[in-house]
Amino acid sequence: MTPPKSLAGTFARLGWVNRPSIRRLVFAVLIAIFVILGFFPERYRAAVTLTPSDPSTLGFNPTQVQLGALNSVFGNQAAIEIALKVANSVQVRDRVAQQLKLQQKLNLDSRAETHRWLERNLDIRSLRGGIIQIQTRLSDADFAKQIVGAYEDASRLQLAEINRRQTAYKRDVLLTLVTEASDRLARAQGAFDTFRLGVRSPDPTVEAGIAGSRVFNLQQAIKNKELELAAARQFYADDNLAVRQLLAETAALRGQLSQAETTTPEQSQGVGRAVRTSTQFRKLQRELLIAQTLYDTYVRLLEGTAIDDMTATASVRVLEPAFIDTSRQLNYPALALALALLLILLATEFYQLRPPVGNRIVVRETHA
């Protein structure tokens, strides 16, 4: 019974493979070709490394991190993913293609083919430490350096455009908030001034202090008069002129004290009016302070948007400008094919020397 033929046996029985000299010559030529292709034409690796950065760390605008600035995410994992997404975006490829005129230079038929060529030849990836690397391997060193340099510029400009769009949105929001805060400040200031004019006092809290001091002084004066009256009654009767004068003065002071201690707000000299006036004054003063604080805060943030625009391009920090790697770049696919052919040749040679029983191959070449 004939055993089934293996793949190696089938290949070894091919006409030219079954001839040792021809087989070795063909494999040697193919291996030599792929080895040469692994080294020539010489390929150059061009690369640029960059990392996302937060413009607020420049120290120009400490308020940039407020109101949801885009830059608050740069420098972390989300920033790296954003930068990678932008670098691989269609807009960046369009900028690179237009800057270098790739469609004409590469003699491509359409914009889509230009994009496919860039996708095949550009490698954009994230390294450890939040570093983004853009690299390519081409036979033209200057062209390769131009491409990675153009990718660096296009990525930075695209991120700057995103920053400016968000800054414009933030500016519109802040303009609305500043307008509302300005109206609120004007109303609070008007109410505050109107109240002070109504009570005829620039600071009604002083009136409350005066009212408290007046009550205390009247109480002390009444006590003094009562002491004088008690001393006078030891020597005079109540119908004496001096005693009657002290009684009248004490009664007048008691009337003034009663008027000063009244809690009725309608009384112009009472404690009630002073308390009500000072309470309303403080309320209006707090409203004015809140309105002024909001207005000042929003104005500072609005002024900060100008710095946001100026630092929009600082969202990417270039670590290594476009450079050509000095190490020799090998064509690893061609070398892998050469190695695969060498292994096939060795396997075939071994099979020819020690074929399985029943699969003895008749060597067709005539030996001298």
Which descriptors would you attach to this protein?
368 residues, 64% helix, alpha+beta, 11 helices, rod-shaped, 4-stranded antiparallel beta sheet, Helix Hairpins, disordered C terminus
Record the SSE blueprint.
Blueprint: H1 7-12, H2 20-39, E1 44-52, H3 77-87, H4 90-100, H5 102-105, H6 111-121, E2 122-127, E3 131-138, H7 141-199, H8 204-233, H9 241-261, H10 271-310, E4 316-324, H11 332-353
Helix pairs in contact: 2-11, 4-6, 4-7, 7-10, 8-9, 8-10
CA-atom Rg in angstroms: 48 Å
Which strand order do you get reading across the main beta sheet? Answer: 2-3-1-4
CATH topology of the domain at 175-310: Helix Hairpins
Structural class: alpha+beta
